[in-house]
Amino acid sequence: MSDIADRVKKIVVEHLGVEEDKVTENASFIDDLGADSLDTVELVMAFEEEFGIEIPDDAAETIQTFGDAVKFIQEAS
Amino acid sequence: MFDLSGKCALVTGASGGIGGEIARALHAQGATVALSGTREDPLKVLAADLGERAHVLPCDLSDPAAVDALPGRAVEAMGGLDILVNNAGITRDTLFMRLKDDDWQAVIDVNLTAAMRLCRGALRGMMKARWGRIVNITSVVGTTGNPGQANYCAAKAGLVGMSKSLAQEVAARGITVNCVAPGFIETAMTDKLTEEQKAGILGAVPMAAMGTPADIAAAVVYLASAEAGYVTGATLHVNGGMAMV
């Protein structure tokens, strides 16, 4: 697994308090990992800080799964 | 109780009577304060009087870019932003039939939109810290209405609705959002009223006296404190019994 995926997973595990093996490619933050809508905003904020990037609101809305987040960050950084 | 040591507070409209007293009271409880306002001189005088833990951050709240930048400046000056007090307000009183678009927009921009922008800017740090206090200063007339103040009343009522919505969104993050609604308080704003108007208003106040900025500041200190942690989405009316709502 790439370094980016590891770092994203660490943030997700810490923030949502879920088991690491639940954070799979297609795991939806809201449907599978128990996040509410405000959690997703906080995750995006945490990704921005961890990777020093800016994630615009319209892009943030497309980040629904762990895989979406990793893909977006790989392309942005 | 109500110890605010180590907390950093931004107060808008700190050049005015109520805002200045709010800043003083927060400071007296141990908070570091950032004093914001349009006029820099009174802010400097207040900061000098407070001594340590006081920063001057002039800001024109009718300028959206300046408003958006203010929370960041506060964090830079104080090292954090735990308490936001949206106190700044302007009036452009006129009878509704004479109400100009400009009179409406200017009051909405400063009294409501700037408060929204400052809340939005302050939230990120509060969310991370899992602690925050937002106190929006509204007015009794936001609840009761007042002839000649449709724009002001709309903005103040808007603040209440905004605060309740935001309070629900961030409650689980340790952030509370409340309003303080002053009644008839001795300030430069009420000095503009005629004696006849004052007498008329006082006739409607069961305590038969005007409130003081210190009465409002005490309510803000309470809502900003750790002790008020279970209070959110509330409006604390401080009006001498003028309106019991």
UniProtKB/TrEMBL annotation, chain A:
Keywords assigned by UniProt, alphabetized: Cytoplasm, Fatty acid biosynthesis, Fatty acid metabolism, Lipid biosynthesis, Lipid metabolism, Phosphopantetheine, Phosphoprotein
Question: Which molecular function GO terms apply here?
Answer: acyl binding; acyl carrier activity
Record has Nuclease as a keyword = no
Where does the record place the Carrier domain?
2-77
What metabolic or biological pathway is this protein involved in? Lipid metabolism; fatty acid biosynthesis; Glycolipid biosynthesis; KDO(2)-lipid A biosynthesis
Q: What is its main location?
A: cytoplasm
The UniProt entry's GO CC annotations, sorted and at most eight, read:
cytosol; membrane
Protein function? Carrier of the growing fatty acid chain in fatty acid biosynthesis.
Please name the HAMAP family in this protein's record. Acyl_carrier
Protein name, per record? Acyl carrier protein
Q: Which organism is it from?
A: Rhodovulum marinum
Automatic annotation (TrEMBL), chain B:
Pathway, per Swiss-Prot/TrEMBL?
Answer: Lipid metabolism; fatty acid biosynthesis
Residues at which NADP(+) binds: T38, N87, Y152, C153, A154, A155, K156, I185
Gene Ontology BP annotations: fatty acid biosynthetic process
- Active-site residues? Y152 (proton acceptor)
Q: Which reaction does it catalyse?
A: a (3R)-hydroxyacyl-[ACP] + NADP(+) = a 3-oxoacyl-[ACP] + NADPH + H(+)
Q: Which residues form the Ketoreductase domain?
A: 7-188
Q: Which UniProt keywords apply?
A: Fatty acid biosynthesis, Fatty acid metabolism, Lipid biosynthesis, Lipid metabolism, NADP, Oxidoreductase
Q: What is its EC number?
A: 1.1.1.100
Entry keyword Lipid biosynthesis: yes
* Record flagged with keyword Ribosomal protein: no
InterPro entries for the chain: 3oxo_ACP_reduc, KR_dom, NAD(P)-bd_dom_sf, Sc_DH/Rdtase_CS, SDR, SDR_fam
Question: What's an example of a GO molecular-function annotation for this chain?
Answer: NAD binding
Q: Which PANTHER family match?
A: 3-OXOACYL-(ACYL-CARRIER-PROTEIN) REDUCTASE (PTHR42879), 3-OXOACYL-[ACYL-CARRIER-PROTEIN] REDUCTASE FABG (PTHR42879:SF2)
Cite the record's note on assembly: Homotetramer.
State its role: Catalyzes the NADPH-dependent reduction of beta-ketoacyl-ACP substrates to beta-hydroxyacyl-ACP products, the first reductive step in the elongation cycle of fatty acid biosynthesis.
Q: Which family does it belong to?
A: Belongs to the short-chain dehydrogenases/reductases (SDR) family.
The name this protein goes by in its record: 3-oxoacyl-[acyl-carrier-protein] reductase
**Higher taxonomy:** Bacteria, Pseudomonadati, Pseudomonadota, Alphaproteobacteria, Rhodobacterales
